Structures are given as C-alpha cells and as structure tokens.
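[step 3/7] inverse_fold.run input=structure_tokens len=325
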C-alpha cells in the first residue's frame, strides 16, 4: 500500500502485462473472470482496448480498470456488462480518491473527453468494495443510467409462485431430463430463433464464440439443458462466479415452453446445482438506457422469488489538455 502523499502512476495495459493482470484479477476483492484477458480479448476486433493499471512508486500494482475507447470517450468496458476499478483488500477510501485523481489526470493528458464508468454490482464483490462509489461522488460523477436486474438470495430464498410450482410439476410428468450439455450449437439456434422472433435482434455471442469462451473458461461458462427423448427443448447458459450464478442466456423451443422445460431447469439450478452460491442472477429487464422497464419480463423473473439489484452507470467529464504546437 502507498504511504500518505505518495503519488500513484497510471499506465495503459499492454500484452506483456497479461500474467500480472490476470493474477491481480484472480486475487482481487471485486474482480470476475470477465476481466481476465482471454475473455476480454475474444472481441478485440470490436473494441479498442484502453485498460489502465495503477502502480505505486515502488512499482506495486494496486488497481486495474478494464476499459475501451471510442471517439475520445473511455468506457469501463464497452464490451462488458460492467467494469470499474478492480482492487485487492489493501484498497481503502483515501487511496481510491488518489486513484480517481490519477485517473482523471491520465485521461486529460491523452485527450479523453469523458469517462463512462460501469459500476460492478455489489453481489459480485468477494469483500466490500464500494470505495469507487465514493470516488465517483467526489470526482463529480453523474448517474446517467440505472438498469434493474433480478436476483435470488439462494440461502434465504422467497418461494416460487404458484404458477411456477405447477409448471415444474407438469414438466416432471413429461419425464424431461435436465443435465449439463456442451451442445452450444443447438442451444444457440434456439436462442437466435427466440430473440429474432420476439425482439428482432441477435444474441451478443454466436455459437462459435460461446463455444470458444466455454473452452477457455470451463469452470465458469456452462450450459444446462432440458431434453425430451434426447431432443433439447430448453437451455440456460450460466456465467458462474465465486458468489453468483448468472443466467447469461435463457431460451426454449415452443414445445419446451408448453411443457415447462425452462422452469424445471431453473428450479434445478437454484435448489440443487447452485445451492451453495449466495445469489442466482437473471440479468436486467430494462431498455432505453434504463428508462423503460419491461414489466412482463421482470414479472417472469420475480415469480421465481428474484428481487432487484441495480447496475449503475456514471459519467465524468474530462477537460482534455490542449497541446499547442
């Protein structure tokens, strides 16, 4: 940890820093596998990396921030659901204020006009890590977006709704089998068809990308499917974190919907497979930068006993230094 008055130094991540970066994420108090370089860089062609590392005068790494840059705006990170400053257990409030001062100066000197900061939701913290929220406040950060996610507290869950319990009972009567699967191609066909018909959009990942990421992170990215006589009728892709099982994708065929296949999978995950986790997170139900709440979607999640956790986005204006020639 730095001594009082010792200046932090910020620098951009480079490929030579990979092992140090990944090790720091693994031992941090608020880092997740999404911040590992092998995950962040699978879509390096879509985002210009601007990740930042913070060292003290002795060269010790004290914090990192996954980030990308576009049109003079730095985001933490454009290709991730959330980002923010990742720290270890040595991070305390005064040091975080210094980190924000260092960050703003670093961005000014590089002609950045704005920082968009995606807060890491508290359920993903391994230990309390909201020093950055105070740093944002002290740095003039403005809340510009708030998405609402739905999360089950697994160790003290609320009951499933009567309709969910009935659907699960019916699914069992059909003799559906729920198990972990590796057939991402079939599942993503179901997902793509569902999103295309319902929202006229494509999923963030295609089958090959998801298969690649699952091969890189087999302990973190898993597919659970329901089968009706060996035919996949529903599936849930889980992003597994230390405390949280997050449902990244949820989809079923028309037949699977009729026979309650998804309900059976989710009941199995919450009550059995991930019973030792603290949270099961369904993801957000908001659109239009958080302004529109899809009430039908969130009611579906709430019927499993899930309640609100927010994903906040802050913005800090940066006054880039103008260098006269």
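[step 3/7] decode complete -> sequence:
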């Amino acid at each position: 940890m730095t001594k009082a008055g010792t200046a932090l130094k910020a620098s951009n991540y480079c490929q030579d820093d990979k092992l140090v970066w990944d090790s720091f994420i693994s031992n941090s108090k608020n880092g997740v596998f999404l911040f590992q370089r092998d995950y962040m860089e699978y879509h390096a062609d879509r985002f210009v990396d601007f990740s930042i590392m913070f060292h003290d005068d002795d060269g010790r790494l004290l914090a990192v921030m996954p980030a990308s840059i576009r049109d003079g705006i730095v985001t933490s990170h454009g290709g991730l659901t959330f980002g923010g400053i990742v720290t270890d257990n040595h991070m305390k409030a005064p040091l975080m204020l210094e980190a924000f001062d260092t960050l703003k100066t670093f961005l000014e000197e590089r002609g950045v006009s704005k920082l968009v900061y995606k807060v890491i939701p508290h359920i993903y913290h391994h230990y309390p890590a909201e020093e950055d929220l105070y740093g944002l406040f002290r740095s003039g950060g403005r809340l510009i977006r708030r998405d609402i996610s739905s999360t089950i507290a697994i160790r003290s869950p609320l009951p499933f709704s009567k309709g969910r319990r009935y659907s699960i009972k019916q699914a069992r009567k059909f003799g559906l089998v729920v198990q972990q699967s590796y057939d991402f191609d079939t599942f993503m066909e179901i997902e793509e068809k569902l999103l295309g018909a319902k929202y006229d959009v494509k999923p963030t990942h295609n089958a090959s990308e998801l298969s690649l990421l699952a091969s890189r992170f087999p302990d973190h990215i898993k597919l659970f499917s329901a089968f009706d006589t060996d035919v996949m009728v529903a599936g849930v892709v889980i992003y597994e974190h230390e405390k949280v099982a997050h449902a990244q994708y949820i989809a079923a065929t028309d037949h699977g919907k009729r026979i309650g296949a998804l309900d059976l999978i989710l009941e199995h995950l919450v009550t059995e497979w991930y019973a030792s986790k603290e949270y099961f997170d369904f993801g957000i139900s908001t659109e239009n930068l958080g302004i529109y709440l899809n009430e039908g979607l969130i009611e579906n999640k709430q019927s499993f006993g899930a309640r609100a956790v927010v994903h906040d986005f802050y913005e800090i204006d940066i006054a880039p230094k103008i260098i006269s020639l």
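[step 4/7] annotate
The chain has a mean pLDDT of 94.
The radius of gyration is 21 Å.
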